[in-house]
Amino acid sequence: MSNKEKNVQYSWHLLLIVALFLFLYGIAVYDYIMTVSHNQGYFEYLRYNQAVIDYFTNYPLVLLIFWTINVFGGIATLLLMLMRKGIAFYFSVATFASMFLLDIITFGFRNRWNIIGVKASAIDIFMLILTLGLCIYNFFLFKKSYT
Q: pTM score, two decimals?
């Protein structure tokens, strides 16, 4: 491996991106665990009404799988990026695809915008855009691995 390749893979922006996304996905993991475990204290803290609690209590298995891939795929992507593995790009694509499908299904067919609310829905859309950015970043970071 040449010095130039090492500088790109160990660059400051890689560490900054990983740190930012580790913070964001860390919040997502916490939210996932608290929501899937139906933690009443967490729901009360977020001031969820009964409609939101019912929404997550009766969450279909397929959507739970997409959500799981999204949350833990994001963490795996970050770890692979730190290990400088080109497969991080594919993990980021899987993370984005699962999040995209989850959003399409829940916004389109489960009335997510109205049940969860505007703020949480906007955050989810913002995370989708950021995750797409992570895919693009990984493509350019590891494109030498593909040629």
A: 0.87
